[in-house]
Amino acid sequence: MPPTDMDSDLRRSSTNTSSLGMSEYAFADINNLEHCAKYLNQTLVTFGFPASLDLFANDPVSIARTCNCVYALLQQRQRDIEFRESANEQRQRLLSDISRLEAKVERLEAQLSTKEREIATMTRTEAKATAALKAQIDKLQQERDEFQRMVLGNQQVRTQQIHEMKKKEKEYIKLQKEGRQRGTWNGKKADNDFYKKIVSNTYHAPTRVDMREFLNAPNGSSKQSRPVNERPDADPSQSPLGGRTDMFDLPLHMARDQIEESLRTKMASIKERMVELQDAQKGAEVTSEVTERELELEAQLVEARSIIQEQASIMSKHLEKPERPSRRLSGHLSSD
């Protein structure tokens, strides 16, 4: 609202009253009553109070209007005081809430620092446990590799022993068959048949030369292998047919004694072979015991693998736990 002449007059009157020694809050005096009344009416209209107050009237209506205006001013003043008190109380409550929240924030910060230290400790413990677990896993892997090498070696030894035992069984069966055939020889016809068989084997079955050497040996053992530089035709016992001029090339009535002696020698050698086969069978039993030990070691290896898997799952769960407290703390702070 622009200043009027009445406002300037009121300011000048206020200045005059202050210069006369009156109170600094004095608004009207006997010289500016009309101007003050007009200013008050305009101001009351501006702020929404009843206007057109006649302060110089003596009629009851004007006096009642003036009283109502003053009463409205008093009520507004009372409401203003109540509002100020309410605002002050609310301010005090807010200040106390702020203090309480600050204390809570400090407490939560202390808890957060404690949790961070605990997390750091758990991280170091976890690193140590991980290193120990890794070392244990490496050790178990080395033991597993060593065990596998041992199992492969035992399997190779077992396979070799089984092969040798089968080979000796075949030799034993072959010797038994030869012994039964020679035990049934009688007369000139059997002698001639055996001679023909020897000649046929000489030409068509070279693999039986070692067996013939074994049978021809006087003590039942095979002859030593011929040196490399020795010539085959150096043996004076070669016959024109390629066979040997030994006792099996002679008629039965001429070589009966030698054949009987040779058969007795061969039977003794067969008994020795049987003893060797029995020893080989015992060795096979020992091999079966080794196989049982291998199975036990395999079971232990499976158990060790299961233990390693359980420890790995425990470590993975342990790695997930440190993240949860920090999430809970952040959620708690956001809720506050």
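The record above closes out task 2.4. Task 2.5 opens with a second protein, given below.
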Amino acid sequence: MKHTWKMVMAVAILGVGLSLQPALSLAEKGEDHSQEVIKHAKEGVAHTKEAIKHIEESVKGTGDAHAKEALRHANEAIAHAEQSIAHAEMAAKKTMCCMEGKQEHK
């Protein structure tokens, strides 16, 4: 059971964290990369969701309370990541609108 729990935690932490790492490094390069950052973040979330589904299937029959709790936390992490992506999309749209407005005034 401990092995399953550790595997769930590894997916939760590494899946979200490492999948977002390329997005975070692109974010440092400026506004031009906003859409690329968002795309990478969405891909990372999708891959992590798929991994969580596989782990949920593995854990179903075990009744391991720790694994189920870890899966709950992993799903919460995904929800937070999706909220962050939504905020990034809104910020990118706002930035694009501001940039278009500045170009019109020139």
